[in-house]
Write the structure tokens for this entry.
Amino acid sequence: MDNPNLHTFDKDLEIFDTGSQVFALTLSDHWSINGTPNGGYLMGVIARIMECCSQKKATPIITANYISKCFPGKALAYVEVISESSNFTRLQVRLVQQGEEKIRALGTFSSELNGEVIQKYETGPPVMASFEESFQVPVIPDNALFDHIDLRLDPSCVGWVSGDLSEPSEFKGWVSFKKERKIDIPAILLFTDTFPPPIFASFGASAWVPTIELSVNVRKIPDTRILKGIFKSRFISGGLVEEDGELWDTNGELVAISRQISKYRKTKD
């Protein structure tokens, strides 16, 4: 029986161990863009599976290769523990739907740190308008993601919505769940893929930008419920565009860094 108090995101991360390191799951349409499950949500599901199979639980580095488009519905995840050491657990997950491999992901989880560690930032969190003063991305038809995610863009980043394009190719703003929930590893992975492609700021939204590969390094689990994000693209060439991202908590601590590689194809007018 469903728990009415369970957050929608937690319901949509549910996995079932069928034995022999195979997990059954159902991909939700609650986190979709144009009917396709968001890549960050898919990575969050994969991270939840990896956590179940890893003796280490801290600061994961997860890289997902998106081989073919997923769809809402049933899937199977096949897990392989590649290696175990005193410091790291390395795993591979293959996500399969209707017999076709959709995603292959590699993850490295670390042991918890004991004692003092060096911390040095050569850059800081983005400077931007307050959460209340920023532009809230509205609920968009066929984009269920924004039914559940509160994404607010700095006013300097919203000209593209009305055709006022600008440089650089950058978006910065605030991100949180609309229904309050603590931020954990799957949530961080989701948030790294909730901002629009930064190339929209300078070229507009008339393009197809499907993700080929997404890599996220989680540095800490924040205590805050809202994160600051900044995402930039600097190079379009060979039909590809990169996106470099940072997530920060409201205390000025780095939460995660990401790099995403996507196809870039202009759509027909």
About this structure: The longest helix spans residues 39-53. Helices lie at 8-11, 39-53, 145-148, 185-191, 199-203. The chain has a mean pLDDT of 94.
